[in-house]
Write a structure and sequence with these properties.
binds adenosine-5'-diphosphate, 26% strand, alpha/beta, 37% helix, ATP hydrolysis activity, 9 helices, 244 residues, ABC superfamily ATP binding cassette transporter, binds magnesium ion, ATP-binding, six-stranded mixed beta sheet, ATP binding
Length: 244
């Protein structure tokens, strides 16, 4: 039982001559909610994607739940099962019903029977406020509903950490609140979460820690009060002036 859920040390990611992550140290404790903020292009998505090896780090170590995921001996598929990821653009399977979207992975991976998975899907849809959408097709849903299905789908694997990459950035403003409320509920239930977002109200209310990245580095981090009310770094200050 590792006390740290995520322990990233000196993570470097280069795309050719583009140095995107320049030696990031990033830790997340069990049950902690970390909100990652920073200008576009600062490397936030790349960092998240390295955490479940959607991107291969150039160098550095990433330990999740005590497992070094850069170690070739680590079964990355197994490790990924415990990491839920929610993207800006939902990425639902549009040819499958809502329930199938949610039951697919746990059934295919032999985690549970079809029947158990369906029962779980009903519970998860209730959690995200969409219990009436079990048989619906994704095309009939609003963006906010699709994103809540995407969250339910990620939760179906019973992950012990959830990564969110700008989950509300593609939504109409009136949909944002419903998605953030689901995320707040998860945080309250003790889910370990890393959330990239521009929703500073959410960050202030829900984050245990806010990490500000710029230009491939962690520039500043602290409690929401420290970072939002008393930013120390000039880049943090100028970023916050633009977004708040
Ligand atoms: P953020 O999420 O903070 O906006 P990203 O992590 O998406 O930043 O991108 C950081 C930098 O990495 C940008 O300069 C971007 O162009 C570059 N980048 C991201 N993904 C790739 C890729 N697959 N190939 C080449 N460059 C990439
Ligand atoms: Mg991004």
């Amino acid at each position: 039982m590792a006390e740290l859920k995520v322990n990233v040390t000196n993570l470097v990611k280069n795309y050719g001559s583009n140095h995107v992550l320049k030696g990031i140290d990033f830790k997340v404790a069990n049950n902690e909610v970390v909100v990652l903020i920073g200008p576009s292009g600062s490397g936030k998505s790349t960092l998240l994607r390295c955490l479940n090896k959607l991107e291969e780090p150039t160098s550095g170590t990433i330990v999740i739940d005590g497992q070094d995921i850069s170690d070739p001996k680590t079964d990355i598929d197994k490790a990924r099962e415990n990491i839920g990821m929610v993207f800006q653009h939902f990425n639902l399977f549009n040819n499958l019903s809502v329930s199938k979207n949610i039951t697919l992975a746990p059934v295919e991976l032999g985690k549970m029977s079809e029947e158990e998975a369906e029962k779980q899907a009903r519970n998860l849809l209730e959690t995200v406020g969409l219990e009436d959408k079990f048989d619906a097709m994704p095309a009939s849903l609003s963006g906010g509903q699709k994103q809540r299905v995407a969250i339910a789908r990620a939760l179906a694997m019973k992950p012990d950490i959830m990564l969110f990459d700008e989950p509300t950035s593609a939504l109409d403003p009136e949909m944002v609140g419903d998605v953030l409320n689901v995320m707040k509920k998860l945080a309250k239930e003790g889910m370990t979460m890393v959330v990239v977002t521009h929703e500073m109200g959410f960050a202030k209310e829900v984050a245990d820690r806010v990490v500000f990245m710029a230009d491939g580095n962690v520039v500043e981090e602290g409690t929401p009060e420290e970072v939002f009310d008393h930013p120390q770094n000039e880049r943090t200050k100028s970023f916050l002036e633009k977004v708040i």
